[in-house]
Amino acid sequence: MELELRHLRALCAIADAGSMGRAAAELGTSQQAMSTQLHRIELHFGEPLFERKTVGVRPTRYGAEVLARARDVLARAEGLGRRAVEDASPRPVLRLAATNSPILSGMVGRVRAELPELVLTVSSVYASSQIVELLEAGGLDAAIGVDYPGQELRHADSVELRGIVTEPSFVALPAGHRLKHRTEVALADLAEDSWFITPDDGAGWPGVLYAACEDVGFTPAMVHEFLGDRLQLQDMIADGLGVSLVQATTRPIPGVIVKPLIGTPLWCRYLLAWRKESVSDEVAATLHGAACASYRDLIAKAPHFQAWAARTYHGTLP
């Protein structure tokens, strides 16, 4: 099979949608046709590009590398379709990736407004350890990743890290949960609940959760491994299928409530990582400033987080 741009677009659509069905709908084809096309593409590359999970798909390590390069090729191909200004220099391309983070959307909009000359391509890479590997190998220029207090991400000297925010982890419950009237929830009180837990992120998760549970005397009784979009997770919580740790700024859908954990036993740091060789200090500062501003917007839309911060920090956000 000769690889074409439409094949690269299909790979990116699958990665962005997180499932074959949603990608097929976006591209106006059937799920069977999309699966067949992916199979042919994977035969071309000689190994799987996506892991098939119970709910959706996610890129393999090799698949993430292919996706990063595919987005670069597509961005450059799109540039060829525009009429170039005579003697104009090519627009620089910055390859940005992110783990599951609501910071991304607001950040990208700000960066495009502040650096209009920059062609920004965005991809999803779940594991922060894989993000670091891609940066070190030159497959990415910058990314939003995560780590945990005391378990900071290791990286080569070619990569720089800068924290965006360290926030507490909250818990999402069905609106009819037995603890719905509590202002804050004790982790130990969730010992008998079913849990939705995302897979190993290479940075310490879910080990930090299991350690926190062990500290209060239990191991989650039933675990559903989940790596889908955040709204799909909330739909299942609303249906009473389980509980899950979520980001403190999560906006719950009807049927879901978000509560702080007593004593804030779990924290997560969101960070900007970039490859020093390909990202200037000025661009890195713009990326970091945009990410921080995006997070402040999320706080403004999360009354449960504001109430927790007011109680914890006596009316002043940290």
Explain what the structure shows.
The protein has 10 helices and 11 strands. With 318 residues, it is an alpha/beta fold. The strands form 3 sheets. Strands 3, 4, 5, 6, 9, 10 and 11 form a 7-stranded mixed beta sheet that branches. A two-stranded antiparallel sheet has the order 1-2. Strand 7, helix 7 (207-215) and strand 8 form a beta-alpha-beta unit. Helix 1 (5-17) crosses helix 2 (20-27), helix 2 crosses helix 3 and helix 5 crosses helix 9 (281-300). The model has no long low-confidence stretch (mean pLDDT 90).
Topology overview:
Elements: H1 5-17, H2 20-27, H3 31-45, E1 50-52, E2 57-59, H4 61-80, E3 93-98, H5 103-114, E4 119-124, H6 128-137, E5 142-147, E6 159-174, E7 194-197, H7 207-215, E8 222-225, H8 230-238, E9 244-247, E10 256-259, E11 267-275, H9 281-300, H10 303-312
Parallel strand pairs: 3-4, 3-5, 7-8
Antiparallel strand pairs: 1-2, 5-11, 6-9, 6-10, 6-11
Helix pairs in contact: 1-2, 1-4, 2-3, 5-9
Quickly list its features:
7-stranded mixed beta sheet; 318 residues; D-Maltodextrin-Binding Protein, domain 2; Arc Repressor Mutant, subunit A; alpha/beta; 10 helices
